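Deliverable D4.2, example record:
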Amino acid sequence: MEPGQETVRWLKFSLDVRLGSIEVNKKPYEGSSRVGHLDETGIGIFIPANLKKGDVAVLEFTLPNSTSPMKVNAKLANRTGFRYWFVFTDLAAEQQQRIQKACAKAKAEVPQS
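Output generated by the structure prediction step:
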């Protein structure tokens, strides 16, 4: 892997996703965090915390052009420093559709090079 390639997953397209509450292993996380990437399979989050692969989380976030937050269950799949990739688990059909729609819209808005 060449330098910078590990960030490709985080920069595929830009979505203004607002992160709300985070609960990891049934404990609320208090602190700052940012969404780095979102796709149909999961969400990448920057959290200054020491989490371990396999940790389970309940994440609350709001998709672009939405006023209602979405709470999802996720499992920590991997990490690089404080960048964590959570894979969604047990998404309801409505949640999956909302995420797919937001991702499709964001991909369509990315300028082609």
